[in-house]
Amino acid sequence: MPDTTNNPNRRSWIEVNSNSDFPIQNIPFGVFLTRDDVITIGTRIGDYAIDLGALHQLGYFDGIPLTDDIFLQDSLNDFISDGKKTWRLVRNRIGDIFDIDNPTLRENAEHKKIVLFTLDEIEMQLPVRIGDYTDFYSSKEHATNVGTMFRGADNALMPNWLHIPVGYHGRSSSIIPSGIPVHRPKGQTLPAGEDQPVFGPSKLVDFELEMAFITTDANLLGEPIPVDEAEDYIFGMVLFNDWSARDIQKWEYVPLGPFLAKNFASSISPWIVTMDALLPFRVDGPKQDPEPLPYLKFNGQKSYDIHLEVDITPKGSEATTVTHSNFKYMYWNMAQQLAHHTINGCNVNSGDMMGSGTISGPTPDSYGSMLELTWRGEKPIKMKDGSERKFINDHDTVTIRGYCKNDKIRIGFGEVSSELLPPFETKKK
Amino acid sequence: MPDTTNNPNRRSWIEVNSNSDFPIQNIPFGVFLTRDDVITIGTRIGDYAIDLGALHQLGYFDGIPLTDDIFLQDSLNDFISDGKKTWRLVRNRIGDIFDIDNPTLRENAEHKKIVLFTLDEIEMQLPVRIGDYTDFYSSKEHATNVGTMFRGADNALMPNWLHIPVGYHGRSSSIIPSGIPVHRPKGQTLPAGEDQPVFGPSKLVDFELEMAFITTDANLLGEPIPVDEAEDYIFGMVLFNDWSARDIQKWEYVPLGPFLAKNFASSISPWIVTMDALLPFRVDGPKQDPEPLPYLKFNGQKSYDIHLEVDITPKGSEATTVTHSNFKYMYWNMAQQLAHHTINGCNVNSGDMMGSGTISGPTPDSYGSMLELTWRGEKPIKMKDGSERKFINDHDTVTIRGYCKNDKIRIGFGEVSSELLPPFETKKK
């Protein structure tokens, strides 16, 4: 089936600013609460959210094999289970409905009133019920930076790193959508030079600039997914801030990996941008040397040119952009990650989320975490309001934005933005 | 509310052998498929499974605040969400219904035909939809054994181990109930003395003797659970075989922990034994030295005296019991694990599962894995059929059993048993 929705010249009868992340070529999927307190699946064009549940009830998806309630749900899991063919039929149909030359909905004021919402009328929710969440560690620059800091330049990359898309399991329950604030976590840390741990709020809360992909039901337990089929099971991508408490992490992570340093909260952008919308932005990835084992060898372009940037905004002050990076720097691509994850027979379900790991670029102004940007706090960042940051302060808001752009269109992810609150205090009973 | 169901002198009108794990004092909860292909929540007394959905429809739970369909579900999650007070009301009512002196159901042949099933008429399912699965590493003997093998006796325990109930996130999707066979996983390993990894079936598949507890909705994101309230949020326990591929684990696990070495399959026993049923078997745990930080200090007996044993049965041959251990050896208890898991605000939901980590006792015949029992294969185990085992062979069945016993009653978990199959082979298209 050809993809008819990526024509860069197509325009919508909904007005879209030239710098919008959401032209008619994007058509992301999300879940929102409407002004009537109804939860529904929707998409977005320009600054309008579109209620797909209502559109479906009004017959706009007639002819596409969909259950009646497929969009009247609090998660995209069932729709994602319907598979790639259905995703494309729906996305193409949405493109047709909102095409500037299609009068059907454009001229139907009553229907428009039912299906269109301004952004202040809705509240975005988590787009999927995440069954399992895995985080990879696939930026060579990030792994090298962290390795250099903790083990020295000679042992920066572990011997397995160039052979394995290293990954580990994370916590699903604490993944939250953009906008929800996060408390500074408490925990055990080992003060420098001491041999007994202390308890208290983390002093080194950090962001991690990541992206994540959302899968469909991919395989049965026991059956690996071949690397060249892996992309068929990826629905789309979101921006991802993998909040991290560096002092807690340092004390707890040997030998079984990060745990409480990460699972206090992980924030994602609410609109899932489909892989189909990202097709025009495929690029080659970094050369992989040594050559990967056969089950990780792939054909074609499997990396994506996605500009990424992070702002820190102190409360009541202006934003400072602290880094510019790009998803294309990732050493291991998503197809390799999914093939590796399933090579032992591990089963992947609809709504599972897999993070990229921190996306650091080659230059110091493109690193994906404060740990790297300030080199463990040794080189504080100067903020626009004159203050300095080594890590994240209470009441700072961290915002990640991401978009693809060529000379014809811009396809973006919006943002994931959340404020760091002071530690949670138990109320007296 | 007093617990009326643990009277050791109570008898049921269902005949129960004296060595049964399931006397009327147990009343575990599970999910099964009936002879009519209906899925329901049930309990078990002796060798009978009891359909709680049918019992509820017949009015036997009248007076207890339960929704009509609470037991007509494919998981216990909603019932577990109802909380400890409801669990006790239901468990006590079941005890009353099946008490030898209560004629109501005993003398109603028609009702008995509807609610009672012999074990060959049902098929046990996963009892909960597991949102998140965490595995701890809480046996000091196990951590010391593994540490000694990999880092030498002087560095056996990591500096954090005596301060932190070390844990990490595992994969929920590949947790399966007893009876489902498991394929030997393939993956990358680094042959001894080489510097390039190879791909192929794991040569060192192992079991891990564990138990796991199942939680209810315990807290909101941001709010820790105090250690002395933690047990209120634990519904019950199961036996757990945390299948492990030691050669894959060794190559992949630094620095982010085990991943593909574990997530190819994890097997649990299908009946959840409630914490109330285990009350008579509370004991003191090992002395904790150094004293834990205040948030991990607890009052009272929080360990449990549960006998554990593991059989290996080659295909067509007799079983060899390879270890006897006990849950009471665990250094960190479940209340401490749950308090630690949430001290940073991580939220815990109904149906989440938390594994103990391998349960090794103090003597070499009580170790909880082949890695330890054969000391990395250096001391093979002699099987009853004359063969030897360093790790698990294809077509071996591994069976874990567990029970509590005093001079009056025995409360058991049944078993978790599964066969290791040869590696999965992709069918030619």
UniProtKB/TrEMBL annotation, chains A, B:
Binding site for Ca(2+): 135, 208, 210, 242
Cofactor dependence: Ca(2+); Mg(2+)
Record carries keyword Methyltransferase: no
Pathway assigned to this chain's UniProt record: Amino-acid degradation; L-phenylalanine degradation; acetoacetate and fumarate from L-phenylalanine: step 6/6
Binding site for substrate: 137, 151, 249, 253, 358
Lineage top rank: taxon: Bacteria
Domain Fumarylacetoacetase-like C-terminal: 134-402
The Fumarylacetoacetase N-terminal domain, residue ranges: 25-127
GO molecular-function term, one example from the UniProt record: fumarylacetoacetase activity
InterPro entries, sorted: Fumarylacetoacetase (IPR005959), Fumarylacetoacetase-like_C (IPR011234), Fumarylacetoacetase_C_sf (IPR036663), Fumarylacetoacetase_N (IPR015377), Fumarylacetoacetase_N_sf (IPR036462)
Annotated catalytic residues: 142
Residue positions binding Mg(2+): 242, 262, 266
EC identifiers of the protein: 3.7.1.2
GO biological process: homogentisate catabolic process; L-phenylalanine catabolic process; L-tyrosine catabolic process
Keywords of the record: Calcium, Hydrolase, Magnesium, Metal-binding, Phenylalanine catabolism, Tyrosine catabolism
Identification of the protein by name: fumarylacetoacetase
